[in-house]
Amino acid sequence: MSTFVRIGKKVKKFAKSVLLPEPKTHVGYCRRIERVKTNERVCAMTFDDGPMDLPAAPDLFGGRALTDVLLDVLDEFNAKGTFDVVGTTAENYPDVKGAVGTPAWGGVAFDHYPAFECDGRGGAVSCPQLMERIIREGHQITNHGYRHVLFGKKSFVYGKRHTLGSLDRVLDDLTALDRLLRGQYGYSMCMSRPPHYVDRIDGVFTSYDAYEKMGYQYLAASFDGAGWLPSKSESPFEAEVDEMVLPLQKKLEEDPDSFCGQIIFQKDGYNMGLRTPVAVGLRRQLELLTNAGYRVVTVQELLDRSPFADVGADDPDFETFRALAKTHAVAYSNNTLQPDKPMTCGEFAMLAAPREAAVDERLRRLLAGSRAYRSRYSGAMAWCREQGLLPKHAKENTPLNAELLKDAAALFTAMPEDFSRRAVLRAFQK
């Protein structure tokens, strides 16, 4: 089955890059953070599905909890991790255990972490001491779902899985973990990664809608730290460690700057073979990165240094863009700014309208059944028309011009010199 998953991943990658067009991006408050543009040798590591209070497998650390082992290694290298935690999977029963080595290793209908019938040894609910250590030592925590249930259907690989299936249920699940972290630990999360990267919730809503409502950014990754797929070799653990280390080593040898701004995916838990190569592989990865002059920081620190995928500190308008992005929707959902593109009416509306109109009112209308609000820009466009900032006939895909903006002059320090995204963002008055 692991071979099936590997082949499936390759087919999916080929389909995305060759057969299918790039998904349509939109300007919004939620941006998919895969990597950022920077010339500094800084990168981030994310650890999914923990914390885990069971020992590593094989246990080479005297019975210490896997999450403690990972924290020990991070501390040794003065590195900061980003832990994408779950609440608890103890509520995901009744269920039956799937075969080891398959995607159903932890459960056929639901996921169970750290293992089937061991739910009480993992997750934020059951592991307060691990959560407290993560926070105390300055690592970041992000929201991987209270129960780690798929937002929507994913027929390939997870066709038998139960799903949350509605925006309200997704929001309830995310909110449950958010409240737990705030109430028990005094910690506020600002990012989330959907279980198994399933974005579509139903025929109307996606994870971007849920994250905009929560005030989250979408935590993605640009490099697979590996180790989560089982090896079929005669020495599977050693092979899985090599699969974590050798690709990273090769990439650094090809280009020592290749990890600048990258976000690396890891797993704080068992892989599909019920082994934990990350317990050994993490040290070797950090040795390679440290020897190449890298610092491993939280994703939030990475964003604080350089928020965008295509515009870095060498851009003359970087500070303006960075400041504006803290309060306004300025970047596309793939975290690019594309400053030299013409700005459209829809993108301007997202910049000008308050979040309540662009996000909350749009979602309220959609939940009430209004098909007129399916467009990402519909709430913001309606508000701008009501306020007289855009004429009634303005279409969201129409490029801006002076005539369209004649009634919105008060929003600018001076009318933009042209109507590129750069010029409009530069002239916009917060």
H/E series, N to C?
HEEHEHHEHHEHEEHEHEHHHHHH
Q: Outline, from the CA principal axes?
A: globular
Quote the beta fraction.
Answer: 5-15%
Structural class given helices, strands, pairing?
alpha/beta
First-last Cα distance? 54 Å
Count of β-strands: 9
Secondary structure tally, helices? 15
Oligomer: single chain
- Radius of gyration (CA) equals 23 Å
Biggest sheet character: 6 strands, parallel
CATH H-level homologous superfamily name of the largest domain: Glycoside hydrolase/deacetylase
Explain what the structure shows:
With 430 residues, the protein is an alpha/beta fold. It folds into two domains: 28-303, TIM Barrel, CATH 3.20.20.370; 311-427, no CATH class. The protein is 37% helix and 7% strand. It has 15 helices and nine strands. Strands 2, 3, 4, 7, 8 and 9 form a six-stranded parallel beta sheet that branches. Strands 1-6-5 form a three-stranded parallel beta sheet, with helices on one face. Strand 5, helix 7 and strand 6 form a beta-alpha-beta unit. The longest helix is centred in the middle third of the chain and has 19 residues, at 167-185.
Topology (elements, then pairings):
Layout: H1 2-19, E1 32-33, E2 42-48, H2 66-76, E3 82-85, H3 123-126, H4 128-136, E4 140-143, H5 155-158, H6 167-185, E5 191-192, H7 207-214, E6 217-219, E7 223-224, H8 236-254, E8 263-267, H9 278-291, E9 295-297, H10 299-305, H11 318-325, H12 345-352, H13 355-367, H14 378-386, H15 421-427
Parallel strand pairs: 1-6, 2-3, 2-8, 2-9, 3-4, 5-6, 7-8
Could you name the key traits of this structure?
alpha/beta; TIM Barrel; three-stranded parallel β-sheet; 9 strands
